[in-house]
Specification:
This protein is an all-alpha fold and about 160 residues long. The chain has helices at about 5-20, 25-35, 40-55, 55-70, 75-90, 95-110, 115-125, 140-155. Helix content is about 70%, strand content about 0%. The radius of gyration is 22 Å and the shape is elongated.
Length: about 160
């Protein structure tokens, strides 16, 4: 029997359960250990990795995002979580979101894993879209009127 505030023991037990394949028990222990602010980021990361291993990409992304919201995260942890989120989005074929998180990891630590290569590859797939300014309250009628004016000045 472990005290509910013995965060380290709950974390260690979560790791042991994960290694033994007792995934539900591991998730429960990481949930308890993650109540400690200093451990929250790592515990959310472990939960995310378990979900990745199970093929549950949405749950993995949610867990990694919770890790990013941990106030006691380090720069290395933030880069690792951003990378994992990018990889999960890439697996879901959500290129734009994947690119954003790989770029975030790269900004934090430029040499982090293979982020530079992933960013280059994904930028070819997801080129920057030109920003189109739209007037406040613009609608199709407004756009047609504007196009008419421009069309007349060209002739």
């Amino acid at each position: 029997q472990i005290d509910s505030d013995d965060w380290q023991s709950h974390y260690d037990l979560g790791v042991a359960y994960k290694e033994m394949g007792l995934i539900d028990d591991a998730l429960r222990e990481f949930d308890v250990a993650g109540r400690d602010a200093t451990r929250a980021c790592v515990c959310h990361s472990m939960v995310g990795m378990i979900h990745l291993e199970r093929g549950n990409l949405n749950e993995a992304i949610d867990a990694f995002m919770r890790g990013l919201q941990s106030p006691d995260r380090t720069k290395d942890q933030e880069a690792a979580l951003s990378y994992e989120i990018g990889a999960a989005y890439e697996a879901k074929r959500m290129t734009k979101q994947a690119l954003e998180f790989f770029q975030r990891a790269s900004r934090l630590i430029p040499s982090f894993r293979d982020t530079a290569e992933r960013v280059r590859r994904l930028q070819k797939v997801e080129p920057k879209q030109p920003v189109r300014a739209v007037a406040v309250g613009a609608d199709d009628e407004f756009d047609r009127a504007f196009d008419d004016i421009l069309g007349q000045s060209k002739s």
